[in-house]
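The protein record filed here.
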Amino acid sequence: MSRVFTKAARSRQKNAEEEEIEEMEMFGLLGTDHTLKNVARCMRMPYEETTAIERSLFYELLQSRQMTEIFLKIRNTALLVWHMNRQVECTTEDVKNRLETPFKYYAIMIQNIVHYLTRHGIINFGCYHHESHLEYQIPREHQNVLVIGAGAAGIAAATQLSDLGFRPTIFEARQRIGGRVASMWHDGALLEVGCDTLRNLDTSPINTLLCQMDIETTFYMENDQIERRTLVNFHNHAKESNNLTQRMEMLSKTLETLRTAALRGEEKYKEIPKEDYIQRRSVNLKLKKAMEKFDDAIEEFDALRARLNAHNQMQPSQQYMSPDDFRDFNAHLGLEEYLTETQLETVQFSSNTRNFLPQGPAASVKQGVGSIFEELAEKCRIPILFKHTITEIDTSGKDSVRVQFETPKGSAAMTFRYVVCTLPLGVLKKTIINDQRAPIFKPPLPPKKVDAIKCLGWGLINKITMGFPEPFWRTTERSYMLSWTSPPNSNSITTYIVAHRTVHDKSENEHVDAAIKCLKEIFPDCPDQPLFSLCTRWHNDPLAFGTGTFMSLRSEPKHFEDISEAIRTTDGLKRLFFAGEHTDATEYGTIDGAWLSGVRAAAELANDYLGSGLIDGSDVQIPLADDDFEPTADHYLPKEEKEDEVPAWDEAASRAATESAAISSDGSIIGEHPRSTMTGPEGAGGGAGPATSTINI
């Protein structure tokens, strides 16, 4: 059973959400832990803990648990401010105004958190109104960035880089935007040749784009998930069993090593003369330490064995239905193959990095999924050069990447300071076997990247779309149409092929005949022939060679890190960055994964060239949790900027210093931080004097 919401219903739902927010704010519930926790989940952030990136950027998190709690309060509040209104930029002042005392006085930390969240595309991304003007003073010769591919990853990378002060240009081999998102029209009817459904919208960054643009959508509340959850729970149970077994095997090897060391130490002890007291004592101490480690390992091994035995005794069912309903179960397996884009026999779940459980509703787009990225590219004014096919990427230069490409006018070559490559995994697989249809990398890709390309699975879904005089498939009864879709108010219906390659190679007539036969079993009044039909051939597309990534039996989590690792030129700097759904460990094979990978590549490029952009607040005095004090703005200033240590405020001198901000020899900007506009003695630093700083960005 599905619940459907059109654009009008969605607008009413949005108004209802706004009214709910106003009511929560009226009763003081908007900043509660429950609200912040839900918003953090929607923004794909852990509510009660920091991420690895945050711990690497904010050294304050290493000082005390109290600093971590302060950081999380400010960060989660920033997520709330952005989530409430994603059409307008979330600024430092917005977050500060939402925070209560004493959190709002942590001016530097607030500014750094907003900057970090913006830089990494967690807030302030997409098509929104900019309240502040970011000016990263990047030399013009360093601003040009080439983005290869105008799919979701390429559009995400280009829009982020543009906001960060770079000048990205997209080279797209096709004559359209979207990549494997392909929306076509036939006699006024929408045909989704590629991706046709947006899923997990509660946590999807694409949901933010839908909120920002006037795109009509139809939402589906998918409630029939019990069988899927049963199967996922079974695979998660198998994954945990495998992890425990592997840890026990590692401990077994450790125990054997310690045992061997102890035996050798005992033999050596016997060989030492009794009068050599010092050496005997030294060896004896080493033996004791080895035995202590052995005892600890034995204890851990026994605990793991007991845990594994208990785990195996609680093995869940792999199948919820009774054996009599095996046909239904096979239908669900077919749905799983559709979602993973390959036959289940080729998928491994023991170390799978993806969360397979649904997160919120799904949606189809009336104008086509491709319209999301077309409208975004147009509104963000991203320059895109179509029919530009990359033939060679050369990183052997000193400080740039040389790219050769084909255009309708012939071959050409250009050099760029930075390149973001979003070529699909299927194309990269052709590259490493020297297929002439794929671009050449000079020098060849590193061995571990090649290994990752080989080991990651590349799935394939083809579609059979058929149009009829009228939609005869509308029914209120439950049916077995688990692998059939139809756009709203459309007279076309689509089914999916997930099978062995020989099945995909069948003719279009064979596929259509099989589809009609299947439809007639469900709907006896199905016509013998459709008005039109379309059968996709993604496996023969030289710009894709397939449809999406999956974790094959050879895949490991490290392969996502290896395939996304940037390549350096001879000057030692990162110049060639990689993005695409195949580089995202948690959302591979999805539009979300493609978008998140583009944002990640843009942030990595910016951090590598500009630095983190965070203000050093190491000298800020932080109050202890048990201090009984009335906080003042002066209390949170760095020591050297206290009121009795700073010269009198000179507004004219401050304005002149700000206007003359320049890049220093080490690449930092001297002057006002781009996200902090000081208008008087109570500036962004919260103090009584000018807050001129050296800001590494």
Q: What stands out?
A: The longest strand covers residues 401-407. The longest helix spans residues 226-271. The chain is about 40% helix and 15% strand. Residues 1-17, 320-324, 475-482, 623-697 have pLDDT under 50 and may be disordered.
